[in-house]
User: What shape does this take?
Amino acid sequence: MLKVKNIVKYYGNNKAVDNLSFEVKDGEIFGLLGENGAGKTTTFRIIMGLIEANSGEVLLDGKKIDYSITDKIGFVTEERSLLTKLTVLEQLKFYGVLKGLDERLIEKDIDKWLERFSITSYKNRKIKELSKGNQQKIQFISAIINHPKLLILDEPFTGLDPINVKMMKDAIYELQKEGTSIIFSSHQMEYIEDFCEKLVILVKGHPVVSGSLKQIKEDFGIKNIMLRGEDLPLDKIKAVKGVLGISKVKGEIEVKIKDKNVAPKIFSLIKNSNITKYDVVEPTLNEIFIAKVGGIHE
Assistant: This one.
C-alpha cells in the first residue's frame, strides 16, 4: 500500500503541493488529476524519492521510499525517456539491470511483453526507427519489466490507436490483479472513469476534490436528464425551478438539473408526450472537473 501523508513542497515562495494526502491500496488504480502546473509531476517526483517534500511523508508498505525501495516502482512519463540510439532489446535490458534484475533472466520477460504488444519483430531495431506508438509501448514495458509494487502512469496512452490502447489496458488490468498499486494520470477523463474508483483533483497543488468517484458524483448533485420524443414542452421545462439549462446533444435533449429531486417534476411535464427516452444520468467526470477547476479560475 502507498500512503501519502500531508505532503507540502515549496519552490522558493511558490507552494507546488499543498497538504496532499491519499492512499492507494494493493491492486487499486487511483486517479491523480489536475491542469498543467497543478502539482502532479512534483507529487510523482516526491513519491519516487527524486525530490524531498518540505513536510509530510510517503510510505510504501510502511517504509519510507529511498533507494532501497525505488526498484519496486515503475513510472511511465508523459514525455518519453528512451535512449533512442539503443535497440529495443538493449533499452529494455538496460532498464532491467538498473532495477536490479538478473540479466540472464530479463530476456525471457522481454520476449513475453514484445509478443504481448505485437512488436517482436522490432526486438533488434533501434528505438529511433520506431513509430511514436511503438515507442510508447517500449516506454511501458520499461516501466513494468521489474514487476513493480507501485506503478505510476502519466498519460500512458499517448500516440496509441484504439487497438493498442486496448492492449495496454489489458496489461494494466493484469498488473492490478497481481496486486500492483497504480496511480493513473490523464487529461482524457474517460480513461479515468474507466480505471479509477478513487481520485484526487489538484488545483495549484491543493486537493479540491477527493474520494471515491461514485461519492464525488453523488456529492456534485447536478444530474442530466436525456430526452427523446415529440411535442416536448421545452418552454415549460425551462421554467421549472432547479432546471439549469437545456441543450441538444447528438439528436437528444439534455436537461441539466440542480439535483435528483427535480427529475420527477420534469417527468410529470412530459409523461403525456410521445417520449421514446427518459433517462436520468450522472454527470461525467469531465463536467465535474470543469466545474471544480474552472470555477476557481473565475
About this structure: Residues 162-177 form the longest helix (16 residues). The chain has a mean pLDDT of 91. The longest strand covers residues 14-24. The CA atoms of residues 201 and 289 lie 8 Å apart.
